[in-house]
Amino acid sequence: MNRTYWYMSLLVLLIWSCSRDKAATPSFQGFVQPSGFPAPVYPLAANPVTLAGFELGRKLFYEPRLSRNNTISCGSCHLQTSAFTHHGHDISHGIEDRLGSRNAPPIMNLAWNTTFMWDGGIFDLDLQPVAPISNFVEMDETVSNVLEKLRNTAPYPELFRKAFGSKDITTATMMKAMSQFMIMVISDQSKYDSVKRGQASFTPDENSGYVVFQQHCNACHREPLFTDQSFRNNGIGPGPNNDSGRFAITLQPADMYAFKVPSLRNLAYTAPYMHDGRFYSLQGVLTHYTSEVTDMPTLDPLLKTSGKPGIALSATEQQQLLAFLNTLNDKKFITDKRFSQETP
């Protein structure tokens, strides 16, 4: 009887322990559309996010074998602590410290993007990794070489089997895994989001700044993503390398010096600003818009409404606007262990 009682007690303890562990570990939900966000444009039906696919995509994102000499990963230029930008560089550095011509854009809320890169040269997230992998100054590798390296590196064949049902590693499955990770990198936990969900309130300065934002900025930086996905010439003028922006893709004269409107989320973590990182502070950005906009044939019409290039903002309005922009910073996003290189 004593032995039976002991076995029964052990069984009850094991069942309780397992149930507690299960309750303590949240189940993987896959992609969830945040409250207040529009429907995503990424074709989720063709590539639904699974736990195995997401974890494989995360591992590939931080995999230096994607570069020719196995030293540069996607995470090398897209640092989570900097909202997945290349903090501290005006233009990003790649393999063998080669200099690019642009500042790495953030990886954030990509499920709602219709184009990618500063010039919109890529229109499918599943194709996006091909550009940095094959770019001479970024990773300087070929996709075929990357696939061969992964096929000969444990545990990748098994990870691909878990994610896609086969150990065969192809371009399609590699890209789909990386997309599963990238579309999960969602920033929607800022103070602004809490206010919109009725969980917090703006301070008087933040609220005044919100009014300024709606009057002068929302046409291009449309809520809640804070970008309208368009390409515009904002009057900063050509940089040292005369980057023509969207024009290089479309060859349309109206696109000369037009670049994709960036999101205003997480600006506290993503300095420097603009496609070539020429502004080191948000005050520098505001100074540009209030007094330094260069009039050019392709300057965006919204910056010429008063007959004088730029946006008229008083010193008080600028400070109020900065207060509002600070409500778009998402500390949880840059510390979320799901997106970090280490396994959560």
Provide an overview of this structure:
Residues 17-25 have low confidence and may be disordered. This protein is globular. The longest helix is centred in the first third of the chain and has 23 residues, at 2-24. The protein has a two-stranded antiparallel ribbon. The chain has helices spanning 2-24, 51-61, 74-77, 130-134, 143-151, 156-164, 171-182, 191-196, 204-216, 247-250, 282-292, 315-325, 331-335; strands at residues 231-232, 259-260. It has 13 helices and 2 strands. With 344 residues, the chain is mostly helical. The protein folds into 2 domains: 44-187, Orthogonal Bundle (Cytochrome Bc1 Complex, Chain D, domain 2); 191-328, Cytochrome c-like domain (Cytochrome Bc1 Complex, Chain D, domain 2, Orthogonal Bundle). Helix 2 (51-61) packs antiparallel against helix 6 (156-164), helix 2 (51-61) packs across helix 7 (171-182) and helix 9 (204-216) crosses helix 12.
